[in-house]
Amino acid sequence: MPTPRRAALPPRLASAEPGQGVTLADVALAAKVSLATASRVFSHPQLVREATAQRVHEAARRLSFRPNLLGAKLRAQRTRIVGVMLPTLDNAVFAECWRGIEESAMAAGYSLMLVTSNYEPARERERVEYLLRHRVDGMVLTVADASNSTVLDQLDRESVPYVLAYNQVSRDAAGHGRHSVSVDNQTSACEGVNALIAAGHRRIAVISGAFTASDRARQRFAGYADAMRDHGLPIREPVNLPSHTASNAPQIQALMAQPDAPTAFFCTNDLLAIGVISDLKRLGLRVPRDVSVLGYDGIALGALVEPPLATVVQPNADIGTQAITQLLHRLDVGSAGADGNATLLPHALRIEGTVSAPAVPA
Amino acid sequence: MPTPRRAALPPRLASAEPGQGVTLADVALAAKVSLATASRVFSHPQLVREATAQRVHEAARRLSFRPNLLGAKLRAQRTRIVGVMLPTLDNAVFAECWRGIEESAMAAGYSLMLVTSNYEPARERERVEYLLRHRVDGMVLTVADASNSTVLDQLDRESVPYVLAYNQVSRDAAGHGRHSVSVDNQTSACEGVNALIAAGHRRIAVISGAFTASDRARQRFAGYADAMRDHGLPIREPVNLPSHTASNAPQIQALMAQPDAPTAFFCTNDLLAIGVISDLKRLGLRVPRDVSVLGYDGIALGALVEPPLATVVQPNADIGTQAITQLLHRLDVGSAGADGNATLLPHALRIEGTVSAPAVPA
DNA sequence: TTGAAAGCGCTAACAC
DNA sequence: GTGTTAGCGCTTTCAA
């Protein structure tokens, strides 16, 4: 029979589970110190004498004391919880990013609360409100469109610290104070398309996710346009595909049936690229022999398929790590007033596998 | 200048942000009701007169009141937070599962806290302790090995409600009271391999993740063994690959160089299968013409590649949905004593694409 | 270095 | 229906 704690505790379930119901007060009592001292042992060890701390630790161990973070958070008016909002985990880009975030946050003693927005602004608002109710100290998020986002406006208004991941805020936005961590979408996309051009392609089409759902897609298309313009090549209208997972053979087929069918595709993300490659294969076309395909993202999976996916690589885990690190730094140091800075992480080009010279040099 | 709230609030930062610092007491004051009534308006609306409720809502709106969940949770001794521990999000299986979990939990008014264990028992223990400190009401988790898991033992000991996802607890474990939601790994794997055999294959090899890191892998191998034994075919030692992402061409090559090289591979997960297919292609082998490959998981990506990945499909989002639903039901109804029940969800076979008859009928 | 005491924001008896 | 009151578990002045 477990030692009965406390004389009588009517509304509390008399649990036999260790840790359950054992409070800091119990520990203090057992260690014959005050509640305050017991608390200090855990939050400000340097303020308490070594011997005393030992006694408290010992008592805590004996009672299987497990701190109730709720009490601490409520009182401290700081939750040490960071809210994370990502569009979806179904795209490996964000799953990889999460890994970076989780690792760094845990190491820094912060907790996380993850929500996904599914690229929908309405859901973004709902989820952000949810995070706010949990009194997260700050947020790391990727929004559909950073340049026109009601959630970001709200966060700014309420001065909730946050760092954007993947969304690249324009440098000249003049003091909106938005922090972001991303690659340079436009420049990197431009370089990718340049590589396509260097390989001999002149008829290059863009397959993209919905522009409204992703400012990245827009920026990457702009990079494509830059490259084409720089080389005096015709800029084609992008093909906006709604979803990653559906087969879009019809659209691709229509494109390939035209007399000036593209010899290369630039897809604004890797998942799209993988789908396009399959669609091309189903049309009897070989990649890269008949058509080249360039993706964007650098998800691990791309290196796993054969031929490996040519792509513009962004450091996904790093983006997460950097974003959370910057946020935690701001939270800890409290440089809330610091002006927004857009961190640009280096990207890389992986031009191989699904990209080669066009069959018939244009 | 914003209307100053409260006479003086020394330690509190006089913030101009809406919602920040506005408490239920402020709302009660503004609505000229007691704190208790204000609280009831939100938690037990049926206990308060309509007109009063209106006044409170109005005041809340005017003051931009945002409930502080921390206070509620601390007092209520129920957090309405569920901890979720998954091995990794890098495998789409779990990312898809998360979607199901998030959707259902949000709809039911529960919050989530996600952690990943990376298949490491040590990290499982650490992360579970972390969740426990947050006083989650229960957990949905996938552990490396459910039949030998210190975290599960701990959870049982502390009678923390939980439901396993993917881990399939043996039915005859006699009252350990473990709840789980999964497909029948062994049976489904057996069926998959049977399909391979039906297609004409007799030399079938298994490529698997580390058995120690996944009880599912072991169960699926057992299913393979069943099928082979049933047909009087030789059971081969499994090839255990450490990671999903690395190329394992050497091992595959060695296998294929043998005189009795397999004509088909059964991979215990889809990611592995995709890697194996690439490795085979790099060896100059065509899939499925020269070698067939069967995966396991049914991740969306598998249908996206060409040829589509033949696989044993499990309902990933459903596994998440069911697991969380069962847990929430237990939390709400409180049938804590109910004996563990292993829910088996239906699987499906997708035999096409990467599986065909062997080139040289054995 | 330690203790006493006052809450953080909210809910839930218990009265009226 | 509504108000009064007593905390949930913890941190943190302020004194000693």
Automatic annotation (TrEMBL), chains A, B:
<dbReference type="Pfam" id="PF13377">
    <property type="entry name" value="Peripla_BP_3"/>
</dbReference>
<keyword id="KW-0804">Transcription</keyword>
<dbReference type="InterPro" id="IPR000843">
    <property type="entry name" value="HTH_LacI"/>
</dbReference>
<protein>
    <submittedName>
        <fullName>GntR family transcriptional regulator</fullName>
    </submittedName>
</protein>
<dbReference type="InterPro" id="IPR046335">
    <property type="entry name" value="LacI/GalR-like_sensor"/>
</dbReference>
<dbReference type="GO" id="GO:0000976">
    <property type="term" value="F:transcription cis-regulatory region binding"/>
</dbReference>
<keyword id="KW-0238">DNA-binding</keyword>
<dbReference type="InterPro" id="IPR028082">
    <property type="entry name" value="Peripla_BP_I"/>
</dbReference>
<dbReference type="InterPro" id="IPR010982">
    <property type="entry name" value="Lambda_DNA-bd_dom_sf"/>
</dbReference>
<dbReference type="Pfam" id="PF00356">
    <property type="entry name" value="LacI"/>
</dbReference>
<feature type="domain" description="HTH lacI-type">
    <location>
        <begin position="22"/>
        <end position="76"/>
    </location>
</feature>
<keyword id="KW-0805">Transcription regulation</keyword>
<dbReference type="GO" id="GO:0003700">
    <property type="term" value="F:DNA-binding transcription factor activity"/>
</dbReference>
